Amino acid sequence: MKERATAVEAVRRTNLGEVLRLVHHEGTRSRSLITAETGLNRSTVADLVTALVERGLVVEQEPDPTKRVGRPSPSVSANADVIAIGANPEVDAIEIGAVSLGGGLRARARIERDGVPSVADAVATIADTVAQWREDELAGCRLIGVGVAVPGLVRAADGLVRLAPHLNWRDEDIASPLADALDMPVAVDNDASLGARAEHLFGAARDHADIVYLNGGASGIGGGLILDGSLIRGAGGYAGEWGQTRPGIPNDAYRRTHDGVLEDEVSRARLLAAAKLTGGDDAALAAALAAEPGPTAEEEVARQRHVLAATISNAVNALNPSMIVLGGFLGILRDRDPESFDADVRARSLAVAADEVQIASAALGRDRLLIGAAEASFAALLADPLG
């Protein structure tokens, strides 16, 4: 009898997680729609929603009866006061966001830095920012955890940062000291893998199951790969390092390094220098490149677009995705002339694979990595809302 009770409770927890996942990823739904989407009966759905309301994870509202024919079904929404913190330490800044259950951004900060942050620097900055938010923007909210998007190789088994070369981090544990500082669980993953997940759930790749995501940041170029709806991590969790591939550059006029990898040739630092900027976020870079930056910058943009298009065509040929998403400064490169960039990719790809692929800049913009990092923190809650 005890085993049967345990099995029943496990099924209930799974069903609670599925209902919470629906309203978190898909938005507000009526009880009747949840019933149709889950295949559960009405009374079961009513019980599950009530349990989630009691836990403070969802809110339920009666619809306007004047706008519906027949008996209206209550609507269920994720509680926007349930928050996960997302953080992205980079070589020039540490970005931090408070993301609501449901995917909305409640607060955001970018702390510029003169030097590359150590793990201790990142922990202190994140902890100080969250402490301030708890007294102000997030007063009264329930914080459930932190996700950290690291531009480097992160071991899937335990979140250890094996190598983040641009941060000078090697075999670093950021999760433990951050968890101690905030008294919350911490999840750590590669930034591009988290960006891919965010764009798949909430952004440009929402309706796609086979996705290549490339992220361009201050630390270089990373990537995420989703096939048949599942994030591909590789044996140790290190898959997707597109920036370390060597692009084919048959014309020496387009080469800036000898035998360099992709992120040596397609580089945010080179774009900043061409635009005569010493720093700044992607918005500042995009604005500078759009404001008649001069022939040197135009030439550099054209060169990087050419090399990037060649790399993406290899991804089209090898993986046959339905969607390719470009984040960070890679999206800026494409957005200079999307039609000609996409045409360049298609011209270099196998025609049958290129016919169906779509290319887009990250729809979540500068928030993609923070939303992805927060999603890593929400994972435990979605798996077991009663945990």
UniProtKB/TrEMBL annotation:
<dbReference type="Pfam" id="PF00480">
    <property type="entry name" value="ROK"/>
</dbReference>
<dbReference type="InterPro" id="IPR036390">
    <property type="entry name" value="WH_DNA-bd_sf"/>
</dbReference>
<feature type="domain" description="HTH iclR-type">
    <location>
        <begin position="18"/>
        <end position="61"/>
    </location>
</feature>
<comment type="similarity">
    <text>Belongs to the ROK (NagC/XylR) family.</text>
</comment>
<dbReference type="InterPro" id="IPR043129">
    <property type="entry name" value="ATPase_NBD"/>
</dbReference>
<keyword id="KW-0418">Kinase</keyword>
<dbReference type="InterPro" id="IPR036388">
    <property type="entry name" value="WH-like_DNA-bd_sf"/>
</dbReference>
<dbReference type="InterPro" id="IPR000600">
    <property type="entry name" value="ROK"/>
</dbReference>
<dbReference type="Pfam" id="PF09339">
    <property type="entry name" value="HTH_IclR"/>
</dbReference>
<protein>
    <submittedName>
        <fullName>Putative NBD/HSP70 family sugar kinase</fullName>
    </submittedName>
</protein>
<dbReference type="GO" id="GO:0016301">
    <property type="term" value="F:kinase activity"/>
</dbReference>
<keyword id="KW-0808">Transferase</keyword>
<dbReference type="InterPro" id="IPR005471">
    <property type="entry name" value="Tscrpt_reg_IclR_N"/>
</dbReference>
